[in-house]
Specification:
mainly alpha; two-stranded antiparallel ribbon; Far1-related sequence
């Protein structure tokens, strides 16, 4: 299934955030949010399959949820200890690639467990797909090798026929 690339200059992205009175968040211009830009880049570059597209859309929804949360808190991002900061950074907490990573979603343990189960299921599904693709690729490579050997035999037979 092919998807049209997302053009963030011209398109509006509507998100259903799951709030009862929320009609969705419209983002008409890029937001200065690293996660939003990464997610948009992921959608733009990776919309080659439905699985990649779904992961990208979920990342966009998470980023939009965080932006909405920051807007509700007057531009301050919530931290793990319940306080808030302008830049959302806790002392010394950075991810391996240097990006700030102190955002915390307020979820109940049941919601977290459900999300973990969903992610585990998606990971298992992706691993199974990978195994199938790997097996198909090996089968194709074996077929190519057999055809190559058959062509070599035919070429040798033609060469021998020409010498006679």
């Amino acid at each position: 299934m092919e998807f049209e690339p997302l053009n963030i200059e011209n398109d509006t992205i509507d998100f259903d955030m799951g709030f009862e009175d929320d009609d969705g968040i419209d983002i008409e211009h890029p937001v200065d949010d690293d996660e939003m830009h990464e997610a948009l880049k992921f959608v733009d570059e990776g919309a080659k399959s439905i699985d990649i597209y779904n992961v990208a859309v979920r990342a966009l929804q998470d980023a939009a949820r965080k932006v909405a949360l920051a807007k509700m808190n007057s531009g301050k991002l919530p931290l793990a200890n319940g306080s808030s900061r302008e830049d959302g950074v806790t002392d010394g907490m950075h991810s391996n690639d240097g990006h700030q990573c102190a955002l915390v979603q307020h979820q109940s343990p049941d919601e977290k467990e459900k999300k973990m189960d969903d992610l585990s299921y998606e990971l298992d599904r992706a691993n199974r797909k990978c195994e199938v693709y790997r097996a198909n690729l090996l089968s194709i490579l074996k077929d190519i090798e057999e055809q190559k050997l058959q062509l070599n035999v035919k070429v040798q037979n033609i060469k021998l026929g020409m010498k006679d």
